[in-house]
Write a structure and sequence with these properties.
The chain has 189 residues and is of the alpha+beta class. The protein has one domain: 3-Layer(aba) Sandwich (Aminopeptidase). Helix content is 31%, strand content 33%. It is built from five helices and ten strands. The chain has a four-stranded antiparallel beta sheet with strand order 1-4-5-7. A four-stranded mixed beta sheet has the order 6-8-10-9, with helices on one face. A hairpin with a 2-residue loop joins strand 2 and strand 3. The longest helix has 17 residues. It is globular. The termini are far apart. InterPro entries: Acyl_CoA_acyltransferase, GNAT_dom. Pfam families: Acetyltransf_1. It comes from Aneurinibacillus aneurinilyticus ATCC 12856. GO terms for molecular function: acyltransferase activity, transferring groups other than amino-acyl groups.
Amino acid sequence: MSYDQKMNINHDIRYKQLIIDDVREGLLDYFNRFQEVKKVWRIIENKKVLIEHPFTEEMDKREKDALIMGHFAECIREGGCVFVALYQNNVIAFATLPYAFFGSRNQYVNIAEFYTSYEFRGYGIGKNLFAQCAEQGKKWGAEKLYISSHSAEETVAFYRSVGCVDAIEINQRLAEKEPYDIQMEYSLY
């Protein structure tokens, strides 16, 4: 894709914070979760190691609708935020930030879901959504964002590129829910 085509796509992307009236089945019909993973990070003998572990990740319509009607709706109803990126009025990326503090000083809020559609990766959309999450976290008075990151090499690299580091405090509930995830944090100050 040429530079001009990329610029046109970026120019046509809109960002929005969803309200409960936006939550409906089919909202993610154009979203493509596809990810071809080749390498993943694993903790082996207390060291983080990048290993070959090829697989693909996808999300079908049933999973998308369950995410919308379950997590998105709950997040908004409980005071959290769902940020989306739209291209031609279709959701192509999203981030959820539940209003739930945790940590030894209640210093963290968690980015619970964070995805960019396969065809739209590499355009800076994720960085824009991440910035919206950071801004909201600051408004709420959080010190840090917490991320239980997919262990794929590219996913961890993205979070590192926006300034995330290994989490100082591990959220045991999240770590137990996804034992292969890499626990990360981002300082808001």
